[in-house]
What does this fold into?
Amino acid sequence: MSLKFAVLISGGGTNLQALIDAVESGHIPAQITLVVSDREDAYGLERAKKHNIPSVVLKRGDYDSAAKRDEALAQALENHNADFVMLAGYLSILTETVVKKYEKRIINIHPALIPNYAGKGYYGDKIHTEVLQNKDKATGVTLHFVDTGVDSGPIIIQERIPVFEVDTLESLKSRIHSVEHRLIVDTAKKYCEGSLSV
Ligand code: GRF
It folds into this structure.
């Protein structure tokens, strides 16, 4: 019986698309059983629909607290028999309810070399803009297990990405995205094959 996993998103879902393509090609021996978004306008929801993957939107505003929303999330994950969870641009912070229930079974991707440019408020273009402003010679991508902190769980893999003087926000982002898509697929595959090390 192949593993089932859920993918949590908040935006465009290019990482989700990479996972969908890798599952459909058989590269990842698993099935995406659910896509969850905390934003109803996330384009990633369109991607899920196109590939007949069930999705649910759990908006922050619809719940009295993060804990209450996470109870709904835990229920959705259970209803869809998710064995593990990939966070692919999910901007809400998971609370104890879900993190404990899926201990060492939730993996997040972060577009920087944690601990650099990580933690509360560090996501998306803010990271890449600061990397460029600081004239860093390199940035990178990190995949890690999720704990109740922000970008703070045990690191699984990191890949360094050079930053060139001629880089613009767009050129840097596109180089980061292509590394992300490879790493998130590779990490999900390794998780399914039981060959992930921390
Ligand atoms: C990616 O940069 C990822 O590292 C970060 O959020 C972004 C999601 O991009 N966590 P997309 O929605 O997968 O295109």
Q: What stands out?
A: The helical segments are 14-24, 43-50, 66-79, 96-101, 125-133, 169-192. The pocket of 5-O-phosphono-beta-D-ribofuranosylamine is lined by residues 9, 11-16, 44, 88-89, 109-111, 180 (CB under 6 Å). The two ends are 25 Å apart (CA to CA).
